[in-house]
Specification:
Helix content is about 40%, strand content about 25%. It has about 325 residues and is α+β, with helices and mostly antiparallel strands. The strands form two sheets. Strands 1, 2, 3, 4, 5, 6, 7 and 12 form an eight-stranded mixed sheet that branches. Helix 9 packs antiparallel against helix 10.
């Protein structure tokens, strides 16, 4: 069957942290993160004589496809192809980017005017953080306001969105160690973290974000921004130390973060549950060189992958290919 083919190209995301676990002000979580160009997700969708899902990460793609078709009562004679996808459960938001890419491709294919936020709700994204949804929609750096403690399933409200300077470069390390928490295990771990954190004094996360990180971003002050990132990641790590056994989830992540800082990164930390970690630089050549050093370190201990990339400031690109 010939006809329209829809293509979606979506960024990955670095999750810089959850901002609050106490919930004593009536909301919980809140989060901050930013979009990066690599590793991108690329999905194509078209009408077909039969139902088919092909390419990479087929099982998750099939799950998301069937869910959106059923919820919106759409014709199942469609073809979905996943050309590229970020590695799963490593802290780069692959699940949300894949889900939203498929959902938005199908909605455009059938000419449905449904918001990205509504598609995220349909596909079960944004239960904790809205970062993945908003970097898909807008790119750049985003901050969300967390969830009300009334059982609401709404996507957390977007509080802040801003462009990340094109000259800033991110070195991302993905060591070959146990993947991050997800699904039911993540829900259980989050519950444990919340209960544990109630006994501790508040961290400085929101103060660092409001009084240092965001002003530095607007002023394009990478030195101050990077210092804020490093401080923020330590504070976030303290909140989750009871469930991830330290500020970082693994000694190799801690070792990688230290290497990046020792070699000139302005700031560094763990993305989400990891194992992905990252550092920020202001020169691409230097970032590439440090990426090579990091790759040698990973290969010496556990193996892994290093990505050198920049921020994505457009969000996902959704367009007709035919």
């Amino acid at each position: 069957m010939s006809g329209v083919e829809i293509g979606v190209t979506a960024p990955a995301r670095l999750h810089l942290g959850i901002l609050d676990l106490k919930g004593d002000l009536g909301r919980i979580y809140g989060s901050i993160g930013l979009a990066v160009k690599e590793p991108e997700t690329i999905v194509k969708a078209s009408l077909s004589n039969t139902f088919s899902v092909s390419g990479v990460n087929i099982e998750r793609a099939r799950e998301f496809t069937l869910k959106i078709l059923k919820k919106l009562n759409l014709d199942t004679n469609i073809k979905v192809e996943v050309i590229k996808c970020a590695p799963t459960h490593v802290g780069l938001g692959s699940g949300t980017q894949l889900a939203l890419s498929i959902g938005c491709a199908l909605c455009k294919l059938f000419n449905l005017k449904i918001s990205v936020e509504e598609i995220a709700k349909i596909l079960g994204r944004g239960e904790v953080s809205g970062v993945g949804t908003y970097v898909f929609k807008y790119g750049g750096l985003v901050v969300d306001g967390g969830h009300k403690l009334d059982g609401s399933t709404e996507i957390p409200p977007l509080l802040f969105h801003y462009r990340v300077p094109d000259s800033w470069v991110f070195v991302i390390g993905i060591p070959n160690i146990e993947r991050g928490f997800y699904g039911e295990e993540e829900r259980r771990i989050m519950k444990m973290a919340v209960e544990s954190y109630k006994q501790l004094p508040p961290t400085q996360t929101t103060r660092i974000v409001l009084m240092k990180l965001l002003p530095a971003l607007i002023e394009e002050d990478i030195r101050s921004f990077g210092d804020a990132i490093t401080k923020l990641e330590v504070e976030v790590g303290k909140m989750f130390s009871s469930v991830q056994k330290g500020v970082f989830r693994s000694p190799i992540i801690e070792k990688g973060v230290k290497l990046l800082l020792d070699h000139g990164a302005y700031g560094a930390g763990q993305s989400s549950w990891g194992p992905a970690f990252y550092g920020i630089f202001d020169e691409e050549e230097k970032a590439v060189n440090v990426g090579g050093i990091l790759e040698e370190m990973l290969n010496k201990y556990v193996g892994g992958r290093v990505i050198v990339t920049k921020a994505n400031n457009t969000g996902a690109i959704i367009k007709s290919l035919s």
